[in-house]
Amino acid sequence: MSPGKVSTLDFEKFYNIVDGKQRSSDKVHRGINPTTGQELWDVPIASEQDLNDAVAAAKKAFPAWRDTPIEKRKELLGKFAEAFQQHSDEFTNLLCKESGKPRRFAAIEVGGVPGIIGWHNSLEIPVDKLEDDEKTVYTEYSPLGVCGAICPWNFPLVLSAGKIAPALLTGNCIIVKPSPFTPYTALKFAELATEIFPPGVLQVVGGNNELGQSLCLHPDVAKISFTGSTATGKKVMESSAKTLKRVTLELGGNDASIILPDVDVKKVAPEVVMGAFQNSGQVCVATKRIYIHESIYKEFLQEMVNFTKTVKVGNPDDGDNLLGPVQNQMQYERVKGFFADSKAQGYKFAAGEPDVAASKGYFIQPTIIDNPPNDSRIIQEEPFGPIVPTQPWSDLEEVIARANNTNSGLGACVWGKDVEKASKVARRLEAGSVFVNSWEKPTPQALFGGHKESGIGGEWGKTGLLAYCNPHVIHVYKS
Ligand code: NAD
Does 251 contact ligand 1 (Cβ within 6 A)? Predict the structure, then answer.
């Protein structure tokens, strides 16, 4: 595409992108707009043949792309970001329709895409040099080849971009498989890429879970970067093990937030609520368990309730809405299960018990469960919806142990006026990203990954780049 020219993209027709071309399919599927419950446009379901063709095209494109100077790859990534920005409004509209998120948050996600590409473009692939009298040893990093990116539905655009940018920068080719719940923005994003990158460098195949599995099993795919649930992550690892693929697994979380007794209650309580209910709780690093010091428990919970009651839930176009619907029916039923279980067990709904069956879309008013027992579902599992438990604590050692008493280890928060003390607590929490005096706000500048069953490896940040590379150590003897 020549500079300054705005590409024409039809935002109502969707194709897989294989070898630089649009591909339809005999089998189609339709996403559901979670705001209305109505079907959206047809999307082609890629066949095994489409997948094989995509892998073959990526394999063919790889040597030339790998050998393209990094400055040229960066130039093309920069052009891609620019072309995307020219369509920001259309991508925002599309994201509102497929995800239901309020327009201002959809616009933030769309704005994050050029941000992620731009940040990666500022990086260099490192070379370490070690020299002695006898030899020089260079530790270099070379691309892996064909990578597969399997993505979830909660941030369909930004999580795809977070895999595409480091993969292409380091000289890999990548095939994206979006979630069948939110395929639209990723398909259009890859279609836009055909105007910029050589065929086969960035492709997309829409499809169901079986297609994801086929990508993991494919012998010519060198790496899978997967973001999704822990249960699926285990399957991805199992399938990928058959060909010893590299895997990066970004999985579910059950983040604890510890509130120390010296916090400014009025200021912090609404922030903690935002950490729990951002994107209607459908965030891997949303706050999912809140531990409040007993001396301020009542007051803090009341402030949380006061703020929660002001949170408006509704369609993307009402500017006052802070939350949209739950993204899909399966998730809606799952989240409703946590409401039903909490009710059946007689737990206290501190912010009221919403009528979850009242609307056509998948809307749920957020609520807080006051002090359920440690073995309750709402403490033990990740609801991935707008419901969060609080519990009091009195002994710091005990609450750290309680926060760590989980197989998850994605994120965590500590809130306290004494930043040094809060930071000391943060360092003892078993999680990949811990936030002091903020709710969870991962940034592409820092590595993002989970401990324990929240993942393997990580992406983003300088170190994340290396997840798309093989170390290549060259020992050069002087004579
Ligand atoms: P999911 O695991 O159901 O699906 C994710 C993707 O995997 C989809 O594209 C799906 O089609 C594909 N898939 C399903 N079965 C597969 C298989 N056997 N082999 C290969 N691919 C397969 O997850 P979801 O419901 O889309 O997303 C929600 C989950 O993702 C939550 O648990 C959330 O915490 C987690 N998540 C994690 C991060 C992170 O960075 N750690 C970010 C967002 C979401």
Answer: yes
Question: What is the helix, strand, coil percentage profile of the chain, to 5?
Answer: 40, 20, 40
Q: What is the pLDDT of residue 66?
A: 98
Q: Does ligand 1 come within 6 angstroms of the Cβ of 432?
A: no
pLDDT of residue 319: 84
Please report the atom of ligand 1 found closest to the CA of residue 253. Answer: 34
Whether the CB of 40 sits within 6 Å of ligand 1 = no
How large a percentage of the chain has pLDDT more than 90?
95
User: Quick one: pLDDT band at residue 202, thresholds 50, 70, 90?
Assistant: very high
Whether the CB of 150 sits within 6 Å of ligand 1 = yes
The pLDDT value recorded for residue 4 is: 58
Helices (H), ranges, 311-447: 329-344, 377-380, 396-404, 419-427
pLDDT band for position 2 (50/70/90)?
Answer: low
Cα of 415 from ligand 1 centre, angstroms: 30
Mean confidence (pLDDT) of the chain: 96
Annotated catalytic residues are 250
What is the Å distance from ligand 1's center to 410 Cα? Answer: 15
For the CA of 181, the nearest atom of ligand 1: 26
Nearest CA to ligand 1 atom 18: 213
Helix 230-241 vs helix 209-217: crossing angle, to nearest 10: 30
Q: What pLDDT, on a 0 to 100 scale, did the predictor assign at position 358? A: 60
Q: What is the pLDDT of residue 205?
A: 98
Which pLDDT score is estimated for 145? 98
For the sheet with 16-18, list strands across it: 21-23, 16-18, 202-204, 173-177, 146-150, 223-227, 246-250, 455-456
CA of 239 to the centre of ligand 1 (A): 15
16-251 in CATH: which number?
A: 3.40.605.10
Closest-lying ligand 1 atom to the alpha carbon of residue 208: 11
Instruction: State whether the beta carbon of 205 lies less than 6 angstroms from ligand 1.
Output: no
Rg (CA), the chain: 23
CATH fold of 255-452 reads Aldehyde Dehydrogenase; Chain A, domain 2 (3.40.309)
Confidence of residue 8 (pLDDT cuts 50, 70, 90): confident
Q: What does the pLDDT average to over 355-374?
A: 87
Task: Tell me the pTM.
Answer: 0.97
- From the CA of 344, how far away is ligand 1's center (Å)? 29
Kindly list the domain boundaries of the chain, sorted by start residue: 16-251, 255-452
Q: What does the DSSP assignment read for 243-285?
A: TT-EEEEE----EEEEE-TTS-HHHHHHHHHHHHHGGGG--TT
- Ligand 1 neighbour 228 (Cβ under 6 A): yes
* Region of poorest pLDDT, from 2-16, 52-66, 153-167: 2-16
